[in-house]
Write a structure and sequence with these properties.
Blueprint (H helix, E strand, L loop, with lengths): L2 E3 L24 E4 L1 H7 L4 E3 L7 E5 L29 E2 L2 E2 L2 E3 H9 L9 E5 L6 H15 L5 E4 L7 H9 L4 E7 L3 H8 L9 H15 L4 E7 L5 H14 L2 E6 L16 H16 L8 E2 L5 E7 H10 L40 H11 L4 E3 L2
Parallel strand pairs: 1-3, 4-8, 8-9, 9-10, 10-11, 11-12, 14-15
Antiparallel strand pairs: 2-4, 2-7, 5-6, 13-14
Helix pairs in contact: 4-6, 7-8
């Protein structure tokens, strides 16, 4: 049967013969991958709304024991271990099919449509074997698929600075940290001791500082999830901090993951999301700065600190509202990691995995509301 990413529900896919089931799957022999990556590779049939492929091969290390963390918003959290076999769980709205790493590499090397990948990303989980498996996966990819750079989505809780150096020495191009929460309080409530999880705000920021030192400017990034209780000012304060360190910010709109502890939390407000997307783009790519922006008493952006004509031009380009992540090989402002519909359904797109058309920009302008005041207005 064919699968289409076109609804608000996680995609359910059949499991062909090459898919392994728990308890057999274990990295580095096996990896999980996003539904979009599996469709692009031809491992499963299907199509994606308004886009033919994803340009980043998102891979996830996997073990029968699963992730040992317990993040409140995550479909892979430890508290779900009685509900579904680990390798069959949804994550960022979609299923993550499992395949042998050898087959994944063979298909990428086969070219054709599969040659569209501009980047590969290895996503770690909190597991004792995750660090070692990541090194094996990285080395094999660099050796067998030269020319396609690799990002590491890290697990700071189990890593030292030496680990970052070793991954870079083995060929990692970009190092990223999924901070996710914009404040220490939200971090603790959603992925720290508040949910009996091992992560700490201090440890994650230490890893971000290490990544700036080891990988250098433009070669590290921070993941942030908008809509978990922070204000727009608090989110953009983190964005500015990361930019000042030399990094880039990769944004997600909060979407309540089925089966997670936050499955009843409301999805991110459209206006909040569009303003944060625009602010992030201005800071990361257009020379904007938090100190030039104005916020109301509730921390909402009311002035981005740009001349109106310039701001309208940037909005009209649609670029601030595309998926943000590690860059591809053609344009640093356009993410190779377009994560099709990872934070919304195609009927109500939050992060656009393709270039916006006129009707899309009209919808975005409407959602932005009145917070587009420019200098001199």
């Amino acid at each position: 049967m064919s699968s289409t990413i076109d609804s608000g529900q996680p995609v359910r896919l059949y499991r062909p013969d090459y898919h392994a089931r728990t308890p057999e799957v274990r990295s580095p022999q096996y990896v999980q991958m996003s539904t979009a990556a599996a469709i692009t590779l031809g491992l499963i049939p299907g199509k994606m709304h308004r886009t033919e492929c994803t340009h980043c091969l998102n891979l996830l290390v996997t073990y029968p024991e699963g992730c040992r963390a317990n993040c409140a918003y995550c479909g892979l959290a430890r508290h779900r271990e009685e509900a579904r076999d680990y390798a069959d769980r949804n994550f960022i709205r979609v299923d993550w099919p499992t395949a042998r790493y050898e087959e994944v590499i063979d298909r990428v090397r086969g070219g054709g449509d599969r040659g569209r990948f501009e980047r590969m990303c290895i996503s770690m989980i909190t597991h004792p074997e995750s660090d070692a498996a990541t090194r094996v996966l990285l080395e094999k990819w660099v050796r067998e698929v030269p020319g396609v750079p690799v990002s590491i989505l890290s697990n700071p809780t189990t890593m030292t600075k030496h680990d970052l150096v070793e991954l870079k020495d083995r060929g990692a191009d970009i190092f990223t940290v999924a901070l996710d929460a914009a404040t220490p309080e939200i971090f603790d409530r959603t992925r720290g001791k508040g949910v009996a999880s091992p992560h700490t705000w201090q440890r994650y920021w230490q890893a971000i500082e290490w990544s700036a030192q080891v990988y250098g400017p433009e070669k590290f990034g921070v993941h942030l999830i908008c809509g978990m209780g922070e204000t727009e000012r608090e989110m953009l304060d983190v964005v500015q901090r990361v930019k000042d360190m030399g990094g880039h910010n990769h944004m997600f709109a909060f979407f309540p993951e089925r089966g997670s502890l936050m499955e009843d939390w409301p999805a991110c407000d459209h206006g909040q999301w569009r303003r944060v997307q625009l602010g992030r783009f201005l800071i990361d790519y257009a020379g904007g700065n938090l100190r030039d922006m104005t916020f109301d008493e509730e921390g909402r952006v009311i002035d981005f600190g740009f001349p109106r004509q310039t701001l309208e031009c940037i909005i009209g380009s649609g670029r601030p509202f595309r998926t943000s992540g590690c860059p591809g090989t053609h344009d640093e402002q356009v993410s190779a990691c377009n994560r099709p519909f990872g934070d919304s359904s195609p009927s109500d797109i939050m992060s656009f995995p393709f270039a916006l058309q006129g009707r899309d920009v009209v919808a975005v302008r409407r959602q932005l509301g009145g917070a587009r005041k420019g200098k001199g207005d």
